[in-house]
Structure formats: structure tokens, C-alpha cells
Write a structure and sequence with these properties.
- Two copies of one chain form a homodimer.
- Chain A is of the alpha/beta class.
- Chain A has two domains: 122 residues, Alpha-Beta Complex (Aspartate Aminotransferase, domain 1), CATH 3.90.1150; 247 residues, Aspartate Aminotransferase, domain 2.
- Helix content of chain A is 40%, strand content 15%.
- Chain A is built from 13 helices and 13 strands.
- In chain A, the strands form three sheets. The first copy, chain A, has an eight-stranded mixed β-sheet, with helices on both faces.
- In chain A, helix 5 links the parallel strand 3 and strand 4.
- In chain A, helix 4 packs parallel to helix 5, helix 11 crosses helix 13 and helix 12 packs across helix 13.
- The interface between A and B is large, with 52 and 52 residues.
Amino acid sequence: MRIIDATRGRPHALQLALCDEMLTAQLENYFAENGMDVRNYGGGDGIPEMKRIFAELLRVDMNEVIVGGNSSLNMMFDCVATFVLERKWGANSKFICPSPGYDRHFSICEYFGIEMITVPMTPDGPDMDAVEELVRDPQVAGMFCVPVFSNPQGYVYSDETIARLAKMHAAHPAFRIIWDDAYTIHHFSGERPQPLNILDECRKNDNESRPILFTSFSKISVAGASVSCAAAAGESFKILQKRIAAQTIGPDKINQLRHARYFKNKNGIEAHMKKHAEILRPKFELVINAFEKNFAATNATFTKPLGGYFISVEIPGNAKHVCQLCKDSGVIITEAGATFPYGIDPADSNLRFAPTFLSSEELEKALEVFCLSVQKAVK
Amino acid sequence: MRIIDATRGRPHALQLALCDEMLTAQLENYFAENGMDVRNYGGGDGIPEMKRIFAELLRVDMNEVIVGGNSSLNMMFDCVATFVLERKWGANSKFICPSPGYDRHFSICEYFGIEMITVPMTPDGPDMDAVEELVRDPQVAGMFCVPVFSNPQGYVYSDETIARLAKMHAAHPAFRIIWDDAYTIHHFSGERPQPLNILDECRKNDNESRPILFTSFSKISVAGASVSCAAAAGESFKILQKRIAAQTIGPDKINQLRHARYFKNKNGIEAHMKKHAEILRPKFELVINAFEKNFAATNATFTKPLGGYFISVEIPGNAKHVCQLCKDSGVIITEAGATFPYGIDPADSNLRFAPTFLSSEELEKALEVFCLSVQKAVK
């Protein structure tokens, strides 16, 4: 039996090939705009042109940006490590985890022994009544957020949600929001969502150190060799800078220069993202059409995201069952429960469908198996 | 006044240019030898061909190698962080720091609040009587070693030193040696030093988890965008692997593939290092000739390394003075004291001279100023 792997949000080879020109371009010279030879040591927080691009993308000041290596997950892990090591977050810290959410965020918490508290997601973002209640606990040290095209539902936080996150009183003196803006410009239909600026809002409320923003080019250029960044202000920026000064003599600045010269600015990125959209949109349409047709007679519901990498399915009490039925027919989807802290979905309901990595032919086969499994399970 | 900066072990632009061919080479395809598309996610511990190259270089098994990003300093920092976070090393841990040594090792200890204990260096490596005495203290959790062309003296550990490091009984249950083999193949005169294999020796003595080896291509390919690795066995390997699994979806594998295809194996590296040697040897000869001529009537002594990036000068009671005199004349050398923990050289004696980054003309000017400063200081 040929196995079809629809577990992860990996770009398809056709998407990766969109960037071959960047990878093979001859750099005219190796000097960043500040005169630094990018082949040599130095520049621990990145080259200026890359800072400027990230600043424009995240709507922050370029002096608030730290450009890193190829993985924003790595930067988030290191950020959490830093707050633990610096004893900003004590031994009994807890994190708010809007769920369903991103399993690798949960893995970071698990690694550090941070207790995870699940908060439900709504189409406007996390249930803010629950969040506001939880942050009154002085052990609640932080929160993971994917504000745009949330993983796996593809929801976009509303302005009200963001305003409340910025304004709420947190009892923990070093409460932080890990703002994983991974899909910030990853719309494949309609306009780019431009929710309220979290850093501006927090600043207005005297909470400038609260959000630490992350994003990367992993789903803009190439997943395995992109450029990532963190952005922060106030004490948060200082804490990250201090660690970086001890941790490294500098990130890969050649790759940064390659990216900066190829993409140039937000306009360059937007033009490139249209090419991704042309590959992604038909896949998502295929999935949504199949779900609409096949779930009509079931209690399964699903999201219809306009960007991001996933479609989320709810099938109360039957997620594990569907997962197993798919597996039996050679289609592997993200493990049921993986979208919840500790891998435990209390309602055994959520499934994450990842269509991007599959060819059209594989996707059609996967959808056939998946829809049939849902129908079988709810019988 | 034109300032000449001889502070750091940076390669000269001519050395960086030796690798332009690698940076501009068109990769025929993007598949590692295990079939993995290096542009996509995955392969958290590196591609097999790069593991094999590092394994050959460090004389370990390729299954003991974890390939990382561009900076071995970053990997060392993360390694120490891991042992602290995993509570292998408690709050009152101490580290043995052979000195003079590498200031960035000391910065890592300082960042984590690890108390540093200075042990003198000898031409055969650290004073092993002192080391064997110190490891009887159950709070001594580890030790930094640069076994080949030590920074700054350019000494190579003797086989006896390595055998004793492998054999000695350490009271701390998780005692580790951070084996920074940064200059493993960086000889510019004579044959490559091949000291005893630390991992083999430790294994023979039932201490296989003791050494954690690090090296990188930073002074083989390009300092700012190379590939680094860690190598370890037993529990140490497991601890590092566990962190990496939570920390990242994978390092930059395109850069790994570029390196692997360009250098191929140890022979390829050796051929390339000959080109570096041709640039470095005359610079070191210039320095040593100048020191021999100008220090004769002083009490200053110096090392004559056959590889690495530094020459070490001893001028008891006058290091700070010389440093200041140089500065006054526009030549900045590594701060006096920087080669000792906490920046304190008790004898105010050691100075590190870094000739590599300078052009011949700059180097001659720097040597003139340095030698004159030494003569002035000892008057």
C-alpha cells in the first residue's frame, strides 16, 4: 500500500522551486548596506536590510528586530529558555495555550516543564473571558498566540481580542505573549489581514515588554533554509539581546543578504506570495468542496481559511477513530489530540488536515479516504 | 589617526574569497544522499553527507554527530544551557577554565552564573595535577578545552594530557568536557597534529558521556555562514538530541549540502586548508620574526604556534600598560585580561595578538607599534 503523508504543513516541491532563483543568484558582492562583509564574523542581530524587511512585515521599528537563523521555532524555544534561565519565570510557571493549536508550541512548554492551560479558540481568537480570568493567577507566565491564520483553524484574531490581550492586567510580573506571526502574509484568497498592531497596543497600555513577535521566511522562501526574526521592546528586547551577545558571534548573514536582495521589501514579498497562492488556493478549494459534499449528512464541521497551511475539522468523539480509519487505508493525518496540550483533546474532536505537501492526485486520494473515514466513523 | 583592529581572530578577506566558488556554485539538485529535499523541513540533526565529513574530521562515528547551524559557539552555549535546564548541573556549579583561554567560553560561564576556576596552561595542555585535584570537588561540573592550537597560545594537548582527562575520576555525576576542536585541521606549518582521540579514550575508561566535541567550518569556508557540529556518545548524545527535537524542525540543510558537495571529504578540506595556510604562514612568520628581534632585550616571551589564529605574549605586570600604549598609537589588541575568567589576569601578563584580519601593510604597522609599546613598558 502506498502511504500518503498529510501530517505536516510542509510546502510542496513546486512551492520550494519558486525560490530557486534566489538560491542560485550570484551575489554581486558580499557587503551589507552598513559595509559589513557578510562572510565574516559579527552582526549578532542581523544585517540592516533584513531588519528593515522584517520591520515592515511586522509593523515594528527596525531597532526592535533581531534577525536570527533559519528557524523561528528555534528562536521561540531559545526565548522561552532565556526567560526560564534568567528566572523571570519560576519553577511552577504556567502557560495559556489556545487550543486547538500548534503542537510544537506545546512541545516547547513540555520540554521546560511549563504547565499548559487550555483555552478554547473562537473565530475571533482565544476566548478572552477565559484568558482575562487566567492571567489573574501570578503563576501564569505567558501565552502562545498565532494571530493570523491560526494553526490549525486558520482564524484571524479580531481587533477586540488584540486590544484585550494588550490591556488586560496580568498578575505575573514577567507575563509575556509569544506572538507567532508565522502566517502574517500567507493569505491565498482576498486581502492580507491587518489586525491591530499588538506592540503598539501594548505600548499604549504601558505593557511594551509584553509581546515578543516572531516570524520567518520558511513559507515564503524555502522551509529548510530561510531567515527568521524576533521583535520586542523594552525589557524583553534587552533580555534577548543579552543572551544573543553570549550565544553567538552572528547568524548566517549570507543567507540574510540573499533574502534581502531577492525580496527587497514588502512589495517584493507580496508579489512572490501570489505565486504561492496560485498553488495553494486550488488545493484548499478541493478540500473545502470535498468536505462540503461529504460531511453534509454527518455532524462533522470544518473551517474555511483564507490563508495559512491547515484546515481544521471537528468531529466530536470520533477524531481518534477517523485517524485510525485513515491510517488503515494508507493516509496518515496529524495524530488526533496533537493540536491540544499533552496530546489530549478532551472531546476527541479536532483533526488537522494538511493539504499543501501533496500533489493534486495524492490530495484527491487522501480526501476520498478521509471523507469516507468520517462517514464511517459517525455511522 | 587610522585605527588598526587586531582584536579578534577574524579571517582576512582573501581567505573568505577562497570559498567564493562554493557560495556561487549551482547545486545540481537539492536532494541529500538519503533522498531528503534539503529545501524542506526535517532532518533536525543534519544531512548524512555532512555528518560523515564531520565524523571523519573528528574521528568519531557519524551516528555520534549532530550537525547544526553556522556557529559552534552557539552549539556550545546551547549545550551548557541544556545541562543547566535539565538540572544536570545545579545552581552552585563550577567550571575548570584552562587559562589563558578563549574569552567567549568564559562569557558562556558568566551568562549562566557558573563559577570559573582558572587552571594554568602548559605547552602540553592544562596543568593536569591541578585538574585532577579540582575534579574531586562534586561541584565541578565541567571544563572547557581547546585541544589543538589552543586559543591564544596555539598549544596542542599531549597524549598524556588527553589520557589523564579521559581517565581521571570526577566526583560530579555529570562532569563534562566541552571539547572545542575549533582548529582541528588549521595547521599552517608541518603536519596536522593528531592527538589521542578523546572519545575513544573516555570510552575505554567507561566515561563515554564525558566529552562533547565541537567544531565548525567557520575558519575553513566562511566565518559568518559555515556549518558547525557537536559530537557525543551515551547520555550526552541523548540529552542533546532531546533538546534539538523540541528546539527546531531542522538546521539550514542547503548550506550543509553546499559544504558537503564542495569539500566532499577530509582530503578536500586538507587541499583547501593549504590555501589558507599560504595566506596565514607569512603573517605568523612576520609576527614571530618581529617579536624575536624586538623582545630580545625585554622579559617578554611569546609562543610560536604552527596553526590556529593567535600568538600569545607574556609580559608580567605590563599587559594592561602595553595594551594602553598600543591604543594610544592607534592599534587595538585584545583587551588585557580578556584571556582569563572574569577578565582578570592575576599576573597582568598575557596578551593575545591576532594577525589574521590585517593586510600585510596593517600588520607591519601594528607590529611596529606593539613591539615599541612592549619595549617602552618594560623600561
